[in-house]
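Residues and backbone
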Amino acid sequence: MLQPRKSKYQKQFRGKMKGISVRGSSLAFGNYGLKSLSRGWLTAAQIEAARKSLAHYTKRAGKIWVRIFPDKPVTAKSQGAGMGSGKGEIARYVAVVTPGRILFELAGVPKEIAQKATKGAADKLPVKTKFISEES
């Protein structure tokens, strides 16, 4: 799973997800991409599942870039724990996604295969997405 090697602070607040992505909102590496249309948290497991789906549909031809990284820790308390006694332990890491953010990029495959691959990857994610290409 993706997670940071180390961080300055162990635990973070939940934060706000307002606004749209300005950075990371255009294709930088590949010819095709998967762009977010809604906001949410993507867990490391969801990102990995989508990446595996892309690799499967492209039959590992071409190149895939993952443009997001889960660097936000999310805490959770154990099932039977009562209220109080501080914040829980880190349960998972998530990437904060806002509309306009490029999630994945592809290069070296035909457009039809790229569309099919991104559709398969989008089905693994909890945010609305759309396929984009260099031409559009």
